[in-house]
Records
---
Amino acid sequence: MSSVTEHYERILSPVYSWMTGGADAALEAGRAEIDALDLHLPAGALVIYLGAGFGMHAIPLARAGARVIAVDSSEQLLGELRRLAGDLSITLVRDDLLSFRAHVNEKADLVLCMGDTLTHLPEHTNLDFLIQEVAESLVPGGRFVISFRDYSEALVDERRFIPVRSDERRILMCFLEYEEDTVVVHDILHERAGDAWETHVSSYRKLRLSPERVIGSLESFGFETRREPGMRGMVRLVGKLG
Ligand SMILES: C[S@@+](CC[C@H](N)C(=O)[O-])C[C@H]1O[C@@H](n2cnc3c(N)ncnc32)[C@H](O)[C@@H]1O
């Protein structure tokens, strides 16, 4: 079993933007999702993005005039974000998202943790800690947007085999193995190498978080919360600090 960071280094970081349909398409989808949130941020708003990846939402936010602090543990994905962002106002932080406050010295207008990053937390007890840290980092009326996969209902039999993306050079599949509070995600990547296929397999654990559990935590730290459908079957929660 790999840690999250090892798993991204071994399998996911090198193919992440390909997996989401290519950087251009993903940035456009990210822009559309940010627009759909109807955030009306003030000019020069401070935005903290926890698990920014290659910048699918961070780049559109910076293009719209926000100052973005992008936190991620993957050096490779942050490198891709830097290349795609050019001279936009995005500060890159390579660290565990649970330590984000060490890198911020003013209150933020918006914090995001999108694209199923929340389920990568090591323990269920980290959820309340993170939400409290975010609540204490926001201006009054600031928002916390989360999107994640609801793994609380276990898939069974062949529904646990999920084709992620394939083309003539690559095939990415994942297999889900459910445990009581967690799910082990086995990623299987086939890549064309000359006339042959190379296979890479790596596994890591994600949390089975129910939307009700996350909403309960948001509300206990003072967020008024709206629930809506997110991208690619995810749940999206928009918490507004009272
Ligand atoms: C599923 S990807 C989502 C990326 C991006 N939010 C998106 O929607 O495209 C999860 C991201 O979180 C990062 N990540 C996972 N656990 C982390 C942690 N504890 N601290 C910082 N980054 C983390 C990974 O490196 C990866 O970039």
---
Amino acid sequence: MDEAKLHEFMGKFVTDMGGAFMMGMVLVGDELGLYRAMADHQPVTADALAARCGCHPRLVREWLNANAAAGYVESTDNAYRLPPEQAMALANEQSPVFVAPGTNVVASCFLDLDKLLEAFRGDGGLPWSEHHHRMFHGTEKFFRPGYRAHLTTAWLPAMDGVVAKLQGGAKVADVGCGHGASTIVMAEVYSNSRFFGFDFHTPSIEMARQRAAEAKVSDRVTFTTATAKAYAERGFDLICFFDCLHDMGDPVGAARHAYQTPRDDGAVMLVEPFAGDSVADNSNPVGRLYYAASSMICTPNSLSQEVGLRLGAQAGERRLGAVMAEAGFSRFRRATETPFNLILEARK
Ligand SMILES: C[S@@+](CC[C@H](N)C(=O)[O-])C[C@H]1O[C@@H](n2cnc3c(N)ncnc32)[C@H](O)[C@@H]1O
């Protein structure tokens, strides 16, 4: 036993445990409006912040001290300040890195722990619908900033000839659309096109319809409850899977359905978590995040469905290419990437 290595590991563990608690602190700050009330970057005392947000002053001071120790806020002379960079991540809903409410996904994993233990001891399955509602809202909030920042500015332009079609008036499917964040981002920009969102989780489809109405795009967006293998619409110019193919029990079946539904030269856009092809490639902070989420969310979800292929969130480009090839697609390439996403294009 190497004592120095033990100390090193305990340091890492304390950092991680503090990080897990900080996810709770972020949810408190987001839901009570504490970060937003500090978005002017000016120093504020705990009492003043508590008064602004209608919260208990002693608890707000303790929350601020935790945020100061974590480097989320700065503290000087009994006052606290949210720096502009942290405000982008924690207070500014329009920013491309607004991560605060996405932490609801982490909360759901803890709330769902008993069900997850049952899955580990049993057949491995934990259906998407069995999660706490924080999972569905957190997923929407986790992914939406990335869609808003990249989808119409970088990802669709990286696909072969797709933008011209969208501008002219295309028919688009968003399979496994959840709350429709990606569908709505596309519909807001390409007003000549028609968008069809499909998901097998009815409460998510109901929320997607509400989101479309709020965004005033209901005239060109239709959300329908359907599995990825069973939606009836045909003739799509573009079929998208945003962070969902690896969740499915039968991704080959879903991809085969997509193979059968486009117009002749229709394209499939697959947005998947960034991953290399081996565990060694993914042994980094992003891979750690996705493997852990995949153990608690994606893989049990796949195992709860027919076939149960259990790709996992770190399937990687080679494995995903094999799925698309098995479904019939002859062309497959990486269109582009971000540190968090692979954007893959499949063609007949
Ligand atoms: C991680 S969420 C992503 C949601 C959405 N695409 C987004 O990016 O916000 C995965 C989604 O896939 C849906 N899903 C999983 N398996 C499905 C299946 N077999 N058919 C249809 N939807 C499915 C879930 O209901 C869930 O909404």
